[in-house]
Structures are given as structure tokens and as C-alpha cells.
Amino acid sequence: MHMNLEPHYKALRYSSCDVPVGIALILTSYTYFISSLCLSIVLYRLSPLHPLYHVPGPTLWRISKLMGAWMSYTGHQHLYMKRAHDKYGPVIRTGPNEVSVVDADAVVSVLGSGGLPKGQFYEARKDPRAPLNLVVLQGEGHANRRRLWNRGMSTESLKEYEAIIAKRATQLLDCVASAPDPNIVDLAAWISYFSFDFMGDMACACQFGGGFELLHNEADRTNIWPIIEKFAVTASIYCHIPWAAHSMQLIRLPSRDRLRQFGTDNALRRLKSTTTTKDLWYHLMDEAGLEKTKPPLGDVVADGAIAVVAGADTAATALSSLFFLLLSHRKYYQALQEEVDAHFPLGADPLDTGSHADMPLLNACINEALRLYPPVTTNGPRQVPRGGGRIIAGVFIPEETQVYLPPYSHHRDPRYFSPSPEKFMPERWTDPALAPNATAFIPFSYGPSNCVGRNLAKQEISMVACLLLSRLELRFAPGFDAAAWPQQLYDHFITTKGPLMVSVKKR
């Protein structure tokens, strides 16, 4: 029987041709939809309908937090924000739902007791496969953990740590003084190695003299230091994009895994130790039995890793900045060296902390270094909670808005630090006529969540500065571009530093 197959062939031919046409139509429809959605979001964020429309700021910042991520990638977020504040004023919009405020009164209302809680920025720093550390905790959990930290950073505890600082500082002196080429010494790198070694000792005393040995072991530097810096950069970027941060947390990052393993390995060594030293672990683990319930081991491991990384960075940045400023201003270098010599004559121990409080120029130089180059230049934001907005610095800020109070911008504001807020002037801390606004000075943040290790950092800085100034004569290395060094202080929540090249001569 003869069958007419022509209609079937036509149908097959038409359907095969329709497939690419259908795909093209679908792609076109999605393109129009996504483009329209993005355009509507952009128009809304720039329109008077947005609750932050009244807050000035760069247009691209108002549209997307991708700009914030890019600024963090460059490491110069603090510089961009400072320039924006100079142009737009003390309250600026830095994101679709984010502002930055430079105002002394806002320091108290945002960071003080009863201020704003931590928000999305810190949520992005939580590791879903690890316990929470002190940095991301808030509320009662933070208060309970902070109580343990406060014991570990008490005056009595700091006295326990003096011998550890002294040992590591002496090693630092030996390394710098015996460098193969005394005209090319990276002082910032050596200070970082010292600070990391010391924090390892202080956090887990069982490692004293055999745990972290960055000062004497190049392999240790290449194994852990790049991991810390790489993770700091990565975390600082994706914290600006919460939805991306949550996705990234589900992906195994080699740097994060190695950093977590690093903390776990050190904790296991401390658990096996029979040391009787009251190190930070002793207090965080509540080995004195002062708490109703024993802190979970995981919490202590998480905080121990934070102590080493953040604590080492804070002191290292402050010390490097102090020497950079002193070397850039020889009259202050010489004056401070004379003050050190007067308090520690030949035969005296410059590591003796008993005299540091009576050295006005030393403390003034440290404060001025912390002012010009705070260890945490931008800091993390707080977030206005739901249930209504807040008036901050005279401006209404709606709920769920993130609020930055960048120390770098506060410290260079002429309203609080004059004259010449951009200049290194230690006398502003000793001359009552030049007294700065103390509330605007926030190198270690402010309030219940301020840096718990601030006194330890100052102790480290004082001891190392006195030792190096009493034993060495330092100058910038020949050919070193000192003017460019501040541009190599990179803001990745913690601060990473470029080389600070000096020439060294024993006194």
C-alpha cells in the first residue's frame, strides 16, 4: 500500500529548524529579563525611593558592592574611603545598603555599650565547618568568651608574657644585627617573624623555643606566612558580597583548610604538653576552673588561631610603622634614642618594662604611629538592627544598613587632630595645647568588642622599640623609596606590608 510520507518529512524538517530558533528565543527572553532586572535595581538604588538616597557618595558605590570587593582586592579600601569622605563629608554611602561615618560621637553610639551589633560582614567570616571565634561572636556568646580573654590579657597575665617577649625580641635583634648584608635588611619582615613567633609562644607555651620558628627557619616562613596573607585577601574580598560568601563557604579553599589544620595541630601539641606556664591557652581553656562549665575544645582552638594571626599582625604593623616614621623624621629618632639611653644606660636592660610608663616621647611616638597607620585601617562594620533606624552623626540611617567607622579616616580628620593631621607630630600627645580628641582615636576599636590584646600589643611595641634603639643605629637602605612605603600597607582587614629596607649598624 502506498503511503504519502511527505507531511511527516515536512514536520520533521520544520521541528529540527525550530530547535535553534527556540533556544535563541529563550536566551533573548532571559537576556531581556536579566537586563531589565539589573536596570530596575540600578535605578532604584539611585532613585529618591531608596532609603539611603539622602546620603551622598560616589555613584558606582551606591549601585553595587562589587566596588567594595574591588577596593579590598587592591588593599587600598582605606584610601578610597578617606578620599570619599574628604569630598562628600562625614557621612557617605559606600554601598547599596551601607554607609561610612567619621564622627567622634558616632564612635560611642555605634561601638559603645548599647551600640550596633555585628552584621552581614561578620556573617561572611563564619566558617561553617569550625566553631565561632571571638571576632564573629556577639551578644552573650561574645561576653562569655571575652571574659576568658580578659583573664588572659590582665595585668598579671601580661607580666607572665614579658619573659617570652624578651626572648623573642633578643632573637630579633640577633637576626637583624647579623644579617648577611647589613645595608639591605627588610625590617618589616623580621618584625613580622618575631611577632608571629611570640604569639605562638604566648598562645601555647608548649611551643616555646620549638613551635613557630620563623626567625630562624626559612621553611616555616614559606609554609605558613603566604597562607595567612592569601586567606586574609580572599576573606576581605568576599565579605563585601554576602551571597557570594555563603557560596564560597561551601567550597573547600586550600588556604582556609591549611589554616584550620594549622590551628588544630597546635592545639593537639598543647593538649599533650605538661607545661605549668599560664599561657593564653590556660585562660581560654579555663584550666583554673573559674567557669561553671568547661569551654568546648573547638572554641579554644578557633580563638587560639585568631590570637596568633590577628595578634601577630597588629603588633607587627604598629612596630613597622613606628620605625618607618622615626626613620623618616630623624629628629624624633634621635630624640627617642636619647630618651631610651637616659632610661637604660650602659648595663641596664631595655626590655625592663618598669620604665616604659615614664617615657613620654616613647608613648607619644607609639600613639602617633597608631594614629597615622592604625593596624586595622577600615575595621568591620556594624549593622542597624530591624525594628527601626538610628540617628547617627545627625543623619537617619535605616534598619539593616551596615555602618563603617574607619579608623584611618577618623585619625586624619582635622576636626579631631590638628594642626596638620597628615603629619607625624608626637608632640600632639605631650602638649596640652595640641591635645587630640581621645574618642576619635580608635586604633584598637572601641567599646565591649574592642581589641582585647591592645595592652599586650603596646607592651610588645615598647619592649622591641627600646631594645632596637638602644643596640642599633638604623637608616633607610640606600636607594629605598621611603615615600612609596605607605602605599604598600594593604588593608585586608588585617594589614599586609611591603618591604621596609634599612641599613643596620651596631652601636
TrEMBL record:
Keyword Membrane annotated: yes
Pfam families per record: p450
Residues annotated as binding heme: C451
Transmembrane segments: 21-44
Signal sequence, renumbered to the chain: none
Cofactor(s) needed: heme
Sorted UniProt keywords: Heme, Iron, Membrane, Metal-binding, Monooxygenase, Oxidoreductase, Transmembrane, Transmembrane helix
GO molecular function: heme binding; iron ion binding; monooxygenase activity; oxidoreductase activity, acting on paired donors, with incorporation or reduction of molecular oxygen
Pathway annotation: Secondary metabolite biosynthesis
Family: Belongs to the cytochrome P450 family.
The name this protein goes by in its record: Cytochrome P450
Species assigned in the record: Mycena rosella (Pink bonnet)
